[in-house]
């Protein structure tokens, strides 16, 4: 499990960085074309929007993996240690359930719109929704790793991968 998550980290970090670089290039090209050449790239706004979808969901998976989402632990911190661990397990199970439902529904949606083209790029909407599917799949794998830590009794704290 650890090797799978380490490989996922490596791929996710590089793909996210690549998507960000392409997004910046597309937006930069649009700005240059509009204000310097007085010409609009009709496809750039749509492509930037779709790349942003990928960036949001891949970035969310990275932040989840690094345990960086905002948490309010005011009440949980006042509980006894054993109860804190039980609450952490419950929260992780609920999060896995939520992420799993979003994964299934986004995959279902992606399959439904395979034949529907986007407005400017004329690519199937499935390619847009694939960013949600892949991001949620990475989050499911991350949460399975976190639950594995609960089962094996590894110490609490930042996710190990």
- The shape, in one word, is elongated
> What is the averaged pLDDT score?
91
> What is the domain tally?
1
Number of separate helices? 4
- Helical amount among residues, as a percent range? over 70%
Order of helices and strands: HHHH
Q: Report low-confidence residues grouped into runs of 5 or more.
A: 157-161
Strand content: under 5%
Decide which structural class fits the backbone.
mainly alpha
Measured between the Cα atoms of the first and last residue, the distance is 10 Å
Largest sheet: none
**In angstroms, what is the radius of gyration?**
20 Å
Number of strands: 0
Quick take:
The chain has 161 residues and is mainly α.
How would you explain this protein's 3D organization?
The chain is mostly helical. It has one domain. Helix content is 72%, strand content 0%. The chain has 4 helices and no strands. It has helices spanning 2-35, 44-65, 81-112, 125-152. Helix 1 (2-35) packs antiparallel against helix 2 (44-65) and helix 1 runs antiparallel to helix 4 (125-152). The chain is elongated. 15% of the residues are buried.
What descriptors fit this protein?
single chain; elongated
Please outline the helices and strands:
Layout: H1 2-35, H2 44-65, H3 81-112, H4 125-152
Helix pairs in contact: 1-2, 1-4, 2-4, 3-4
């Amino acid at each position: 499990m650890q090797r799978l998550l380490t490989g996922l980290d490596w791929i996710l970090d590089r793909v996210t960085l690549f998507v960000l670089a392409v997004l910046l290039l597309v937006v930069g090209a649009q700005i240059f074309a509009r204000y310097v050449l007085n010409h609009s790239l009709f496809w750039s706004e749509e492509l930037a929007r779709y790349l942003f979808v990928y960036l949001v969901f891949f970035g969310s998976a990275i932040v989840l993996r690094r345990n960086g989402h905002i948490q309010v632990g005011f009440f949980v911190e006042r509980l006894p240690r054993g109860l804190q661990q039980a609450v952490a397990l419950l929260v992780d199970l609920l999060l896995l359930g939520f992420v799993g439902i979003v994964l299934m529904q986004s995959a279902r949606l992606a399959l439904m719109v395979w034949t529907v083209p986007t407005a400017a790029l004329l690519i199937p909407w499935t390619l847009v929704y694939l960013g949600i599917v892949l991001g949620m799949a990475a989050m499911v794998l991350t949460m399975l790793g976190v639950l594995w830590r609960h089962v094996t009794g590894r110490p609490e704290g930042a996710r190990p991968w």
